[in-house]
TrEMBL record:
The modification N6-(pyridoxal phosphate)lysine is found at residue 77. InterPro entries: Ala_racemase/Decarboxylase_C (IPR009006), De-COase2_C (IPR022643), De-COase2_CS (IPR022657), De-COase2_N (IPR022644), Orn/DAP/Arg_de-COase (IPR000183), PLP-binding_barrel (IPR029066). This is Diaminopimelate decarboxylase. Keywords: Pyridoxal phosphate. Its cofactor is pyridoxal 5'-phosphate. Residues 69-313 form the Orn/DAP/Arg decarboxylase 2 N-terminal domain. The active site is at residue 382. The lineage of its organism: Bacteria, Bacillati, Actinomycetota, Actinomycetes, Kitasatosporales.
Length: 474
C-alpha cells in the first residue's frame, strides 16, 4: 500500500519527466543520433513508461477487492512497436489488439493468449478462427459476428464460416456494447455516441433484450465489453459508460440465475493533458471515480480488463527535428524542420483539436534561451498546411537548432504517414546510462530510401508497360 501511495504522489512528476527529456535531447546530439544527416528521430522515455505502468497497476490495486483478477491490456494501436509491447509485458501489462497486424506484433513481443484481447470492429472469419484456436479473448462487435462465433463454437452448425468448428476454445468471449451515453469534445474519437459504429447500440429498440437473450442462449459468453472514453471525454462521462455496462452485467446474471458474466472489460480512453508536463487526470483519480460512481464494480465479483493506450505512452514520447532553414514570410518567422505531417498527422490536419507543445533546443541540444517570438514551426512536406505549430511563442528557432514536439509517444511517430515518401524516422528508447548519463536503445531503425522504393512497387517496375498487358494477370 505504501508503495502505491508513493507511486501516485511522486511517480511521473512532470518536472522529472521534463528534466529527463532535456538530458536525452542533449545526449542524442552529443552521441550523433541527431544531426545534419539524421535530422529527425523519435525518443521514448523508458523510465516514464515504467512509471505509468506502475501507476496504472497501483491505481486499480488500491480499489479492487484482494484477489480480483485484473488484466491491463495496452491498446496496441496507440504505439504499435514490438519493444514497447515487450517492455509493458515486463511491467505486467498485456495487449488489446484490433487487426491481424496488431495481433502479430503482440505475439512477436511474446504476449501469450491469456494477456491478449481482440476487439476489432471488422473481424474476418479467418481472424476469428485464429483467435479462438489460440485461446485469445474476443469481444464480438455485433450480431453477425456472434453468428460467426456460434458457427465456430457449435459442432455441426448450419452456418458456414469455412472450415471445421473449434471444438473447445479456451477463449473468454463477450459482446461489445455501446451504452450511447454521448460523445466528448472530439467527434472523430468519440465511441459512445448514439450512432457510433462500435458495438451493439444498447438503447436502440430491442437491443438490450437481444443482448440479454444472447447471453442466456450461450453459456460460454462470460464477458461484457464497452470502451466509452477517449481524448476529450470527461471522467464522469467515462464512469457513466462503465456504470451502464455494469448494470447490464447485473441484469444478465440475475436473469441467468448465476454469475455468467464473470469479467467486465471497461476499455481505455483516459484523456491526456497536452497543455503542460503534468499528468492529469491520473489513473488513481479515475479508479477512485469508478469506485464512487459504480459501487459493486470492484467488490470481487467481477474480474476486470482495462485497455488504456494514449494515457500510458503519450507523455513519454518526443519527436526531435532539426531546423534545416529559418526564414521569414509576411513578417512571421518560419522554422522549416523535418517533422510535419508524416509524424504528426492528426495535428497537421486538425490543429485546433490536436495542438502540440513545441520545445526549442539549440544546435548542441540544450534548451534554447531567449525572448519568446511568435513563429511557425513547419514540416518538410510539400503543402502549405504542413505545420507542427502555427503562431507559437518560443525562443527564435535558427538554422541548426532543434524543435521538439512533446507528448508524441502515442498516435504520432509510431503512426507514420507516407506523404512525399518521407522515410519513417528512427526511434530510440532512453534511460539512465551510467557514465554516459543517458543510454539509448534502437526501438525501430530509420526506414531507408531503398525500402521506400521496394514498398512502392520497385520490384514491379515494368508492370504497366512493355509486352505485358497490365490487365492480364497470368
Ligand atoms: C483505441 C481503443 C482503446 C484505447 O484508447 P485510448 O484512448 O488510446 O486509451 C481501447 N479499447 C478500444 C476498443 C479501442 O478501440
Amino acid at each position: 500500500m505504501g508503495a502505491h501511495i508513493e507511486a501516485e504522489e511522486t511517480g511521473n512528476s512532470g518536472a522529472g519527466r521534463a528534466a529527463r527529456r532535456d538530458e536525452a535531447v542533449r545526449a542524442a546530439v552529443e552521441q550523433g543520433l541527431l544531426g545534419p544527416d539524421s535530422p529527425i528521430i523519435g525518443l521514448l522515455d523508458v523510465t516514464g513508461i515504467r512509471e505509468s505502468a506502475a501507476e496504472l497497476r497501483a491505481a486499480f490495486d488500491a480499489v479492487v477487492a484482494p484477489g480480483t483478477p485484473v488484466l491491463h491490456a495496452f491498446a496496441v494501436k496507440a504505439t504499435p512497436l514490438v519493444p514497447v509491447l515487450r517492455l509493458l509485458r515486463e511491467e505486467g501489462v498485456g495487449a488489446e489488439v484490433a487487426s491481424p497486424g496488431e495481433l502479430a506484433l503482440a505475439r512477436a513481443a511474446g504476449l501469450g493468449p491469456e494477456m491478449t484481447v481482440l476487439d476489432s470492429p471488422a473481424k474476418t472469419p479467418g481472424e476469428l478462427r485464429e483467435a479462438l484456436a489460440l485461446g485469445i479473448a474476443v469481444n464480438a462487435d455485433n450480431p453477425q459476428e456472434l453468428d460467426r462465433i456460434d458457427a465456430l463454437m457449435i459442432p455441426h452448425s448450419p452456418k458456414d464460416v469455412g472450415g471445421a468448428p473449434i471444438a473447445a476454445s479456451r477463449s473468454p468471449l463477450g459482446i461489445r456494447v455501446n451504452p450511447q451515453i454521448g460523445g466528448g469534445s472530439i467527434e472523430a474519437t468519440s465511441t459512445a455516441t448514439a450512432t457510433s459504429k462500435f458495438g451493439v447500440a444498447l438503447r436502440d429498440e430491442g437491443a438490450r433484450e437481444w443482448v440479454v437473450r444472447a447471453y442466456l442462449d450461450r453459456p460460454w459468453l462470460t464477458r461484457l465489453h464497452a470502451h466509452t472514453g477517449s481524448q476529450g471525454v470527461p471522467l464522469s462521462l467515462m464512469a457513466r459508460g462503465v456504470a451502464e455496462t455494469y448494470g447490464l452485467a447485473e441484469e444478465i446474471n440475475r436473469r441467468a440465475g448465476r454469475r455468467q458474466v464473470d469479467t467486465l472489460d471497461i476499455g481505455g480512453g483516459l484523456p491526456v493533458n497536452f497543455a503542460s508536463d503534468a499528468t492529469t487526470p491520473t489513473y488513481a483519480q479515475y479508479a477512485r471515480t469508478l469506485a464512487e460512481e459504480v459501487p459493486g464494480l470492484f467488490d470481487g465479483r467481477y474480474g476486470l480488463v482495462t485497455e488504456f493506450g494514449r494515457s500510458l505512452l503519450a507523455k513519454h514520447g518526443t519527436v526531435v527535428a532539426r531546423v534545416e532553414y529559418a526564414k521569414s514570410a509576411g513578417g512571421r518567422p518560419v522554422a522549416l524542420t523535418h517533422a510535419g505531417v508524416q509524424v504528426a498527422t492528426r495535428t497537421v490536419y486538425a490543429p485546433g483539436v490536436w495542438p502540440l507543445r513545441i520545445a526549442a533546443y539549440d544546435s548542441k541540444g540544450r534548451p534554447k534561451e531567449g525572448p519568446a517570438v511568435v513563429q511557425d514551426v513547419a514540416g518538410p512536406a510539400c503543402f502549405s498546411g504542413d505545420l507542427l505549430a502555427e503562431g507559437c511563442a518560443l525562443p527564435l528557432l535558427e538554422q541548426g537548432d532543434f524543435a521538439a514536439a512533446l507528448d508524441t509517444g502515442a498516435y504520432y511517430f509510431a503512426h507514420h504517414y507516407a506523404y512525399n515518401s518521407l522515410v519513417r524516422p528512427a526511434i530510440y528508447g532512453f534511460g539512465p546510462g551510467g557514465e554516459r548519463r543517458v543510454a539509448f536503445a534502437v526501438v525501430r531503425e530509420a526506414q531507408t530510401v531503398e525500402e521506400v522504393v521496394a514498398e512502392s512497387g520497385g520490384a514491379q517496375v515494368d508492370a504497366l508497360v512493355g509486352g505485358r498487358a497490365p490487365w492480364g494477370l497470368p
